[in-house]
Amino acid sequence: MSDITHETSIDPDSGSAVKCTGIDQSLSKRLIEALVADKDRLFSVMQDSNSDVLLAALRNPALDDQHLLTLLKRRGLGDLLLAIYNSKRLIDSYAVKFVLIRHPETPPHIVLTLLPLLYIFDLLKLCQMPGINADVHLAAERNIIQRLPTQPLGNKLTIARRGSAAVVEALLREGFPQVVEACLDNPHLKEGSLYQFLSSAQATAENISIIGRSSRWKGRPNIRLAILKNPRTPAVWFTMFLPGLPATTLRDLLASPRLTFAQKELVRQAGRHK
């Protein structure tokens, strides 16, 4: 139904017919209702197709979080999203912030402003939602990574098991043994990230042994090689991983400037048995 009516009147000077435009009575009633409706009726107002009616509803004192969450399920909201964001009363709600961030039509500058206000586990949830905008996903990851150093151990363990590839890689770099162990079971952990970690200063003897015992990773040739190339690797892993390696790999290990004298001696012994 059109929101505008056209009425015909007679021009008193010329006597000709003139069209006069006025506000549709239906629209007028809907605008008034949007402003004064009670909580129950407001849910119906949230389904209105006219943006002016919805903007009027945002000024209704009876409007609460549930009405906004109902509205934010819709697409094509346009300026309404900005209106919600610009209202201190409406954006004060944590639930509204979260849903506004998730909305596919929310302007990027609003999303980037609101993301730091989310709890870290809601940021994690955001990263796991299917269909989330790629830029939002990346920004959420960055916010999580920035907060990792100040998180308690329990939070880090949970994030290590559930975080995205970039988040898990950041946790590995911190080098806490309990967290490293939790990261190893994360399905998003990439072999390349683990290989890089094994080549880093954070790969302590304890962390190397944790990886060496991992049923998921210990059988991978590249991971075994990274373990054998680390000067902090305990002797037991040379004893376990050297047998079966080709002579060319043993020669490469002997040529490595990183290995200790004792480690190279274990490599030589393995070569004599070939």
SSE blueprint:
Layout: E1 4-10, E2 17-23, H1 25-36, H2 39-45, H3 51-57, H4 65-71, H5 79-86, H6 88-91, H7 94-102, H8 108-114, H9 120-128, H10 134-147, H11 153-162, H12 165-174, H13 177-183, H14 191-198, H15 205-213, H16 221-228, H17 235-241, H18 247-255, H19 261-272
Antiparallel strand pairs: 1-2
Explain the overall architecture:
It is rod-shaped, with a radius of gyration of 32 Å. The chain is built from 19 helices and 2 strands. The chain has a two-stranded antiparallel ribbon with strand order 1-2. The protein is mainly alpha-helical and 274 residues long. α10 runs parallel beside α12 (165-174) and α14 runs parallel beside α16. It folds into 3 domains: 31-113; 118-129 and 137-189, no CATH class; 190-274, no CATH class. β1 and β2 form a beta hairpin. The protein has helices at residues 25-36, 39-45, 51-57, 65-71, 79-86, 88-91, 94-102, 108-114, 120-128, 134-147, 153-162, 165-174, 177-183, 191-198, 205-213, 221-228, 235-241, 247-255, 261-272, and strands at residues 4-10, 17-23.
Question: Which features characterize this protein?
Answer:
single chain, 274 residues, mainly alpha, 3 domains, 19 helices, disordered N terminus
